[in-house]
Amino acid sequence: MSKTVLKLKDASIFQGNSLVLSEVNLEVNKGDFVYLIGKTGSGKSSFMKTLYGDLKLTKGEGHIVDFDLPTLKEKDIPFLRRKLGIVFQDFKLLTDRTINDNLLFVLKATGWKDKAKMKDRVASVLKKVDMETKGFKFPHELSGGEQQRVAIARALLNDPELILADEPTGNLDPQTSIEVMEVLQDINKNGNTILMATHDYALLLKYPSKTLKCDDNKVFEVVQRKAN
């Protein structure tokens, strides 16, 4: 039996008092790669924010990496996020420090103490995204694609049970998007579970996988036709 890392049952997602998505039912199992698609404003970001604790789940059931979303307390959110890797569209790297120091900062913030182990972990995740020689650089010295690779490395630091990638290729040109997608595919093949929100349909055709669509306040699975 594969382990369920995310399950929503009859969940409604609100932004303030506005209903964004209703009666959401879905399950993501360990090792899955799942797309979340939909037009701008269809609720993808609100959906993601609910999963990492930025928005409260007030209606329905929701479980994510051993946390119960409706009863999630403010003080538990940092612990939830340690089990998640989150990749944003705009990288969110700290501009005033090197790549190595960006990653060390996250390890310190999540309770790592042993300096040698921290250094090894940083080297190991940078190697996974093919950035092992760039650790001494500052974010502004890297291209957009390289910055996103670092953001993916950062998401891998605490060996997350689920990676939430919110439009990870949204700011990148098509060729760079494919390079970043290849990195995500590789880490998925190594056993990482990924839920990726995107509006880049070209990627779905090139890398077909289970696809959920936000439309008309609902989330439903789309059956993809295989490319010839």
Automatic annotation (TrEMBL):
Where does the signal peptide begin and end?
none
What Pfam families does the record tag this protein with? ABC_tran
For biological process, the GO terms are:
cell division
Domain ABC transporter intervals: 6-227
SUPFAM superfamilies, from UniProt?
A: P-loop containing nucleoside triphosphate hydrolases
Q: Under which name does UniProt file this protein?
A: Cell division ATP-binding protein FtsE
Annotated organism of origin = Olleya aquimaris
**InterPro entries xref list:** AAA+_ATPase, ABC_transporter-like_ATP-bd, ABC_transporter-like_CS, ABC_transpr_LolD-like, P-loop_NTPase
Tell me, in a sentence or two, what this protein's role is. Answer: Part of the ABC transporter FtsEX involved in cellular division. Important for assembly or stability of the septal ring.
Keyword Cell division present in the record's keywords: the answer is yes
The entry sums up its family as follows: Belongs to the ABC transporter superfamily.
Cellular-component GO terms for this entry: plasma membrane
| Top-level taxon in the UniProt lineage | Bacteria
Keyword presence, Magnesium = no
Alphabetical keyword list? ATP-binding, Cell cycle, Cell division, Nucleotide-binding
Show the GO MF annotations. ATP binding; ATP hydrolysis activity; transmembrane transporter activity
Q: What is the lineage of its organism?
A: Bacteria, Pseudomonadati, Bacteroidota, Flavobacteriia, Flavobacteriales
